[in-house]
Amino acid sequence: LSAIEQRYGVDRQVLVAIWGMESSFGQFMGDKSVIRSLASLAYEGRRPAFAHSQLIAALQILQHGDVQTGQLLGSWAGAMGQTQFIPTTYNHYAVDFDGDGRRDIWSSSADALGSAANYLHSSNWQQGQPWGMEVALPAGFDYALADDSIRKPLSEWRRLGVKNLPLNFAEANASLLLPAGHRGPAFLVLDNFRAILKYNNSTAYALAVSLLSERMLGGGQVLAQWPRDDLPLSRAQRIVLQEQLSSKGFNPGGVDGIIGANSRKAIRSYQQSLGWPADGYPNQALLEKLISTL
Prior knowledge:
Elements: H1 2-8, H2 12-23, E1 32-33, H3 34-44, H4 48-64, E2 73-74, H5 87-93, H6 109-122, E3 132-135, E4 152-153, H7 154-159, E5 173-177, E6 179-182, E7 186-189, H8 191-199, H9 203-215, H10 235-247, H11 261-274, H12 284-292
Antiparallel strand pairs: 1-2, 3-7, 4-5, 5-7
Helix pairs in contact: 2-6, 2-9, 3-4, 4-5, 5-6, 8-9, 10-12
């Protein structure tokens, strides 16, 4: 880990956190043939063009000779090795860190962690900088500012009444994250959080990695209460929510069960029309309100 830090400038805690999240430190890497999985998905999956590109990339891995066909194992979706790289990511960022002549992210923890570090380094990871911080929001705060497309200097967030910001931290642009809506904890996230999102474009994943990396140094405890009574929506419920938003003139950008930027924007607009806190968070209360006004 020291050698990886020295070469790539990526903090060891985040690497070990990703390692733990992706494969429980190499214990669960998937046992399915990557070629068979990707060939099946390219033929009849939901994203055939993506699966086709990954299939070609997986064949290139075999052609290069880093691994034999029987060892090219992974998840049903084609994620591979201790750090669960998809084939195109492997071809771009996998490294032979242990010097044995092969980029083996399956059997070599050094190669797997070095490859993850190379990926984060290429995503502009800043060594020694925080991923972000938990903050407290003042009464009457405009929750519509909780949008990853909105970036403000920490001084501006402080001017808006955001509390618990470190006074000695250099100025940086941050976005406000409300992973459980306005009833849950609030975080300001910085560039290193965005680097983790390039590894896996899920704010839940990036937050889990960030907090786990802090736990290794004795921190990472979430101070605010999480609304545990607020059960997440199923995919079928998210589809109904998007359908109802669209029928009421709030365009979610498609009906696919994925709550992306367009869906959150539509949710905020609908919440504002109701006079609710416009946090863009899809929950049971919002769905029930949409259905009750059919």
